Amino acid sequence: MDSIRVGMLGFGNVGTGTYQTLLMNQDRIEQTVGTNVDIVKILVNDINKKRTIDVPHGVYTSDVNDIIKDPDIDIMVEVMGGIEPATSYMLSAMEYGKHVVTANKAAVAAHFDELHKVATDNHVQFRMEASVGGGIPVLSPITSVLRANKFEEILGILNGTTNYILTQMSENGMSYEAALKQAQELGFAEADPTADVEGIDVANKLSILMALGFDHHILPTDIPTTGITKVTPEQLADAKERGKVIKLIASAVNSGSELKYSVKPTELPLDHPLAMVKNEFNAVFLKGNAVDELMFYGKGAGPMPTGSAVAGDILQIVAEELR
Ligand code: NDP
Ligand code: HSE
Prior knowledge:
Blueprint lengths: L3 E6 L3 H12 L1 H8 L3 E7 L16 E2 L3 H4 L6 E4 L7 H10 L3 E4 L2 H6 L1 H10 L4 E2 L11 H5 L7 E7 L2 H13 L3 H10 L8 H4 L2 H14 L19 H9 L2 E11 L4 E11 L11 E8 L3 E8 L3 H20 L1
Parallel strand pairs: 1-2, 1-4, 2-3, 4-5, 5-6
Antiparallel strand pairs: 7-8, 7-10, 8-9, 10-11
Helix pairs in contact: 1-13, 4-6, 8-9
The site of L-homoserine has 11 residues, from helix 8.
């Protein structure tokens, strides 16, 4: 079979991680899905920028229509970030009959219903595994093997940058500023890290988890949210002395008649399962009325773990739609 042609919006942390994942495992991918997956066009802001990965001549473009309107491109991957123009580009691509994969939780949380409706109306797939928990596969299980459950509780550490900062401050005595700088250098942070440190990124992810788990789309701006900017080294040290640790916790409880949700720094006892989740690792705890308690754990940020999830969504579309 001919190769699957992918157009990608963005070639930063996640875009390069996705490209590298597909490249380094090309032989296995070809064997298991029966075809090559080729990234044939990449939209960037600056086509002359020096990059860490070499791509063939002519792949970069600064015109999104080279991807959206190219009838030979099967799948569009959106890893450029921001709510707009990313959302409009995804909607257009689906209207042009392309399957869409995204890691962009800000866009998904803001336009969850519209993105899913346009996908359904145009008989294409809209996949977003990387948008919550980076490399952790949590969204697919909620919508597949766990579908027989009603979910009662979602609890988690959903941001790699802030978990990295809190871990480094608490365990290594690093300053907030130095830890944030490292998280940026390691490719965990958002282009504007305010979204990380003020808890907005976690609210986006909790909104998506509630939409899938509770069938209620709560806008992230309606989730009471406190970030980590006011957590001091003294508070972290004091918690440690008392056998506790401070984590940025997303929590949602569905009692059946009422939904309660929040994002805030929370003290946990050291033997709590979420207390052991360190650095860029994330964890999502779910309680379903049949399966009972489940916990998903893994790297919640970073180019390669996130690239793994994006590439996985591409291959799922190939397996289900294009083979
Ligand atoms: P980066 O800032 O590293 O990369 C963004 C890329 O998009 C750059 O290549 C940039 O081009 C391009 N871009 C941005 N805006 C435009 C535009 N208007 N037109 C054309 N190109 C544009 O971001 P990340 O890779 O870190 O994140 C991408 C998405 O993935 C975001 O939605 C983020 O929330 C999400 N995500 C990130 C994770 C991570 O660990 N970093 C994990 C999970 C999700 P240029 O290079 O020329 O500037
Ligand atoms: N900035 C995000 C984080 C990226 O640090 O978790 C992964 O969604």
